[in-house]
Design goal:
Blueprint lengths: L5 H36 L2 H20 L4 H7 L6 H32 L4 H10 L2 H17 L3 H25 L3 H22 L10 H25 L1 H9 L2 H14 L1 H17 L7 H27 L1 H9 L7 H26 L3 H22 L4 H27 L4 H22 L7 H35 L4
Length: about 475
């Protein structure tokens, strides 16, 4: 495809990616804004209970997917009706099994994770979501194969808006984790309906063992990586929830989500990057350009937000959320390096899988997860902040390896694109630390301003012309002139 119309494909990719990214940022801002309200209506335990339920829901959804979506997205030829029909049948059957298992296991989960009887009911309310996800799979695969990412982003923005408004209404009337769980169910159902409006046609159930085996061949490896990643990213729900209880989970997850704002949009863009990266050969200069642009843009913009949020956490959190969340500040400090690494790790793991290196990606993620869990288990007595530092130490090591691997695979190194943003971030941290030791050290707003100002000044001093050229290119793409 790229050989026949390379410029047309690249222009469409740039246009759709820009649209998707802009709408995902808007969605993230919407979630952030409504979370401000929810943080004042609900306490840490409510968020912790929902996070524990979300862990089991997410794990079941991963186990019930089989990687079929990734397999169909990566196919060079057209997907057949039989493949769509077998996919939806397989996912619905496994979703039914997973939902039933969650309902049956609810009493045991409640006992192990210190949930009250009414809180255990939240898990049962989440069980139907195991069937909603499979119903959404087919229209999403069709839209992603057609590179209609802007339309996908609009669907998700509308569903997110509905979910968050319902969450606020339920939190005000009912309170507790029920508000979060009920809103999640409403938002998921809306997303399915909108997806079929955009791409009509629900495949009829069909069972073709031969077709299923062919799809699972590659998909199982991709899905195994997702399962491993899920365990790595949910240490708080597993470890803190079992050892301490829902409140500690709520404290950790608040700090994580607060610092995660710049990473959220990057992780969402991985869905765009996977089908895009799969279109190119390893040594194609266009692939190197696409990977460099994705990761560098994420670093330049993401680090600016991250250093500001981290340096000003003691002022921003009580002002925007509530003073009771100040105990999450040490988690924010500890998790910041993990978030910085996440700006690059997401796109590079998409590259690994899209280029047919699912086995390598799985091995790397297993190592990453093992190191993270090993450090967390060794340091868990230090509470949520110690677990946050465990995340960061393991992530930094993994990102160094990922960048080195990607450079070899692409035939050209990626590090030169990252030097400027990383040096600017280091300068920002040093400036904020120095300011913290002066009479302005108790003013979180001053620290945030110093961190952001130092980052921008250092970045422009190091590579001002390149940054200006990149901004002009992004604006041109957004206006449809790229």
């Amino acid at each position: 495809m790229t050989a026949a119309h390379p410029q047309t494909v690249l222009q469409r990719i740039a246009r759709e990616t820009t649209s998707f990214g802009a709408l995902q940022v808007l969605s993230s801002v919407l979630v952030w804004g409504t979370t401000l309200v929810l943080a004042r209506l609900l306490d840490a335990r409510a968020f912790g209970v929902y996070a524990i339920g979300g862990f089991f829901l997410g794990l079941g959804a991963l186990l019930g997917d089989g990687g079929l979506g990734a397999t169909l997205l990566r196919k060079k030829e057209a997907v057949t009706d039989d493949e769509y029909r077998v996919t939806v049948t397989f996912l619905l059957a496994l979703g039914l099994v997973m939902g039933t298992c969650l309902v049956i296991a609810t009493p045991a989960i409640a006992t192990r994770y210190h949930l009250q009887p009414d809180e255990a009911g939240v898990l049962r309310l989440l069980a139907p979501l195991f069937l909603v996800g499979p119903l959404r799979a087919v229209p999403y695969i069709r839209l992603e194969r057609e590179l209609r990412f802007g339309l996908i982003a609009r669907i998700e923005l509308l569903a997110t808006l509905l979910r968050q408004l319902v969450a606020i209404a339920l939190a005000w009337r009912l309170g507790g984790a029920w508000a979060l769980a009920g809103a999640q169910l409403v938002g998921a159902l809306a997303q399915v309906g909108l997806a079929y409006l955009a791409s009509p046609g629900l495949p009829r159930p069909a069972w073709r063992p031969g077709v299923l085996r062919g799809l699972l061949g590659y998909g199982v490896r991709v899905q195994a990586l997702g399962v491993v990643a899920f365990f790595k990213d949910n240490i708080s729900a597993l470890l803190l929830g079992a050892l301490v209880g829902p409140r500690a989970v709520g404290v950790f997850d608040f700090g994580l989500k607060y610092a995660q704002l710049p990473v959220t949009a990057v992780n969402a863009l991985a869905r765009v990057q996977f089908p895009v990266y799969a279109r190119f050969e390893a040594k194609d200069p266009a692939l190197h350009a696409a990977v460099t642009a994705a990761t560098r843009t994420a670093l330049v913009a993401g680090l600016a937000i991250l250093v500001t949020l981290t340096a000003g956490a003691r002022a921003i959190i009580p002002f925007v959320y509530n003073a009771r969340w100040l105990e999450s500040v040490p988690v924010v400090w500890g998790i910041s390096a993990n978030m910085a690494g996440g700006l690059v790790a997401g796109p590079l793991f998409s590259l690994l899988q899209a280029q047919g290196r699912a086995g390598t990606a799985l091995a790397a993620f297993c190592a990453w997860t093992a190191v993270t869990w090993g450090l967390a288990l060794a340091l868990h007595d230090g509470g949520p902040p110690a677990i946050a530092w465990s995340y960061s130490a393991a992530t930094v090591a993994m990102v160094v390896w990922l960048v080195a691997w990607a450079g070899r695979h692409l035939g050209r190194p990626l590090w030169p694109a990252y030097v400027g943003p990383l040096l600017a971030a280091a300068t920002s941290c040093a400036a904020a630390y120095a300011t913290a030791r002066t009479r302005w050290g108790g003013n979180g707003w001053a620290l945030a301003g110093v961190a952001l100002g130092a980052y921008v000044a250092a970045l422009l001093a190091i590579e001002g012309r390149r940054v200006r050229d990149e901004v002009r290119a992004l604006v041109a793409a957004a206006l449809g002139r790229g």
